[in-house]
Design goal:
This protein is an all-beta fold. Helices cover 1% and strands 37% of the residues. The chain is built from 1 helix and 26 strands. The strands form 6 sheets. Strands 1, 23, 24, 25 and 26 form a 5-stranded antiparallel beta sheet that branches. The longest helix is centred in the middle third of the chain and has 4 residues, at 147-150. Mean pLDDT is 84; it is low at 1-54 and 56-61.
Length: 383
Amino acid sequence: MRGRVRHAVAAALLAVAVTGCATFPDNGPREWQEQIEGAGELGGIPRVPDTADPRLPPPSGDAAPPPGTPEEPEPCDDPDPAVVESCLDPVGAIAVLPDGRSAFVAERATGRVLRVEQGTDPVLVATVPVDAGGGGGLTGLVLSPSYAEDGLLYAYATTGADNRVVLIASGEPPKPLLTGIPRGATNNGGALAVDLDGSLLVATGDAGGAGPASLAGKVLRIDTRGRPAAGNPDPTSPVLGSGLVAPGGICVNPLTEAAWVTDRSGAREVLHAVVPGPVGAPAWTWPDRPGVGGCVAVGDRIVVAQREAAAMFVITTAVGGGFTGTPESLLVDTYGRLAAAALGPDGAIWLGTVNRDAGGAPGPPDDRVIRIEFAAGGGADRA
C-alpha cells in the first residue's frame, strides 16, 4: 500500500456573472429513428496495453543505490489526501461503487477500466477496444441500476466503425448493447447516466454533423437490454431529446429527478435541462468556453468539471426554476484540467483529470482521480 500524508489546501473562488435561466418547450417537432440492434462481440479477452507502468519495480539488473541514500518517494505517491489514484491515462469517466470508497475509472484513450481505492494499487477490470480519434474513446461509464445484484457496468465507447454502448461483466469480454451511433472526424464523445426509473440516459455527440435522422447529437433513453425505454416519446425509438453537439456529461439529481447535460456548441458552451424533444434555450451559458465536462446534480447544486478553466464550477438552482446566488469556481488550478465527474453515495464528488491530453508536460502524478467532500448547501473540502 502506498502511504498518503494528509494536508489542507485552500480552495480558490471565482465569481462569475449569471447569464440567465432557461425555458424549455414541452412539445415540439421531433425526429425519431427506429432502434438499431447490435450483434456480436467487441473483441478479445481484456488485456493491459504493453506500456511501462511506474507502479512496477525496476528490472532486477538495475544497480542498487549506495548505502545511506535517502529513499525517494514513488512517482505515483501523491501526498494530497483527496487524491484517490494517480499516474493514470486521461480519465474519460468515473462510476463510484456503493461503498463510497472505491470507483471504476475509464481511461479514454486506452479503453482500460480500472477499480481504484485510496491506498491500494489499481486493478484492471476490463479493456474495451476503442478508437480515440475525434474526441472519442471510452468517455462514459455507469453502474447497472441493479449493480448490487448483477455487478454489471455500462460504457460509452468509440470504435473504428461507430459509437456504441457496451455491457461489461466481470471476467467476460465487453458486449455491444446499442450500436450504430455515427462516428465522424469530430464530436465522437458521449456520456452515460441512470434515470430514476432505472433507464440508461445516453448523451451522444453529433459526429461532426451526422444528420437529424441518426442517433448522433441526441439524448437516448434505453433499458438495460438496449431497447427503447418505456415512456419515450416514440415507443419504437431510443431517442428522448435532440440538438446536442459535443456533450461533456449528463447527470440526474437523485432528489428532484431533474436531468442535465453539458454541451460544447460553437462559440459558447451550455447547460441544458433534459426534456423530451429538441433542446430549447440553455439553462446556463458560458461564452468564455471553459471546456465543460462531466456534471453532478446534488441537492440544490449543479457541479460542472471544466478543462480549460481547470476548475469545478458550482451553481445553485432556485425553487421554481432558474438559478440563484453567486456561482463559484472551486479548485482553480489545483489539479489542472478536470473532465470526468461523478457523485458518490455519501454525497462526495469524484473528479478525473485530463492533463496528459493538453499537449504539455504534466507532472509525475498525472492523471488523477480526486474525491472531494461536498456539502449540497455549499462548500467543498478535500478529504
